Amino acid sequence: MIAILQRVREARVEVAGRTIGQIGAGFLMLVCAEPGDTEAVAEKLVQKVLKLRVFSDDAGKMNRSVQDVGGGLLIVSQFTLAADTSGGNRPSFTGAAPAELGRRLYEHCLSVARSQHPLVQCGEFGADMQVHLVNDGPVTIPLRMT
C-alpha cells in the first residue's frame, strides 16, 4: 500500500459541497491499495502511521506520534498515488488495486485505525472529493508498505 502523510493543523474533505470528514491538528493520510496488498499490509501501514514520530516535543524536536499528541487522522482514498508516468504524458493507473480490493483494504484501514485511535475521520471511497488542508511545517511523508 502507498500512503502520503501530511502533518496538518486542520483538514477536511467535502463531497458535493458537504463536509464528510474533518480534523484539527493531526495527519491527513492519502492511501492507495495496490494489487497483491492484503489486510496484513493495511494493518502494518496503520501501525506505522500511528507510531510515526513527526510531531514536536517540548524542545521543538520531531519526537512525538499522532497518538502522543492526541491528534486526528483523516483517511482519504486516492488511487492516483499509483500513477505510472514513465510512458508519456498521460498517467497510467494500472498499478492501483481493482476497485473491490481497494475498497476492502481502505475500509480495513479505517476499521483498524478506529479500533486503535479515538479520532478518525474519512473520505468516501470512489467519490469526487475536495480535500482542504493547512499543512503544518510543511511535513509530508511518503510511505509504502509491502
Q: Count the helices. How many?
A: 3
Helix content bin? 10-25%
User: Which runs of at least 5 residues are low in confidence (pLDDT < 50)?
Assistant: none
Distance between the amino and carboxyl termini: 6 Å
Please state the overall shape, judged from the principal axes of the Cα atoms.
globular
State the CATH architecture: 3-Layer(bba) Sandwich
Describe the structure.
The chain has 146 residues and is an alpha/beta fold. The chain has one domain: D-tyrosyl-tRNA(Tyr) deacylase (D-tyrosyl-trna(Tyr) Deacylase, Chain: A). It has three helices and eight strands; from the N terminus they run βββαββαβαββ. Strands 1, 2, 3, 6, 7 and 8 form a six-stranded mixed sheet that branches. A hairpin with a 5-residue loop joins strand 4 and strand 5. Helix 1 crosses helix 3. The longest helix has 18 residues. The radius of gyration is 15 Å and the shape is globular. The mean pLDDT is 97.
Helix and strand layout, with pairings?
Blueprint (H helix, E strand, L loop, with lengths): L1 E14 L2 E6 L2 E7 L6 H13 L3 E2 L5 E3 L1 H4 L2 E6 L21 H18 L3 E3 L6 E16 L2
Parallel strand pairs: 3-6, 6-7
Antiparallel strand pairs: 1-2, 1-3, 1-8, 4-5
Helix pairs in contact: 1-3
Keywords: Cytoplasm, Hydrolase, RNA-binding, tRNA-binding
Subcellular location: Cytoplasm
Pfam families: Tyr_Deacylase
What's this, in brief?
The chain is an alpha/beta fold and 146 residues long.
Comma- or semicolon-separated keywords:
146 residues, alpha/beta, D-tyrosyl-trna(Tyr) Deacylase, Chain: A, six-stranded mixed sheet, two-stranded antiparallel sheet, 8 strands, 39% strand, globular, EC 3.1.1.-
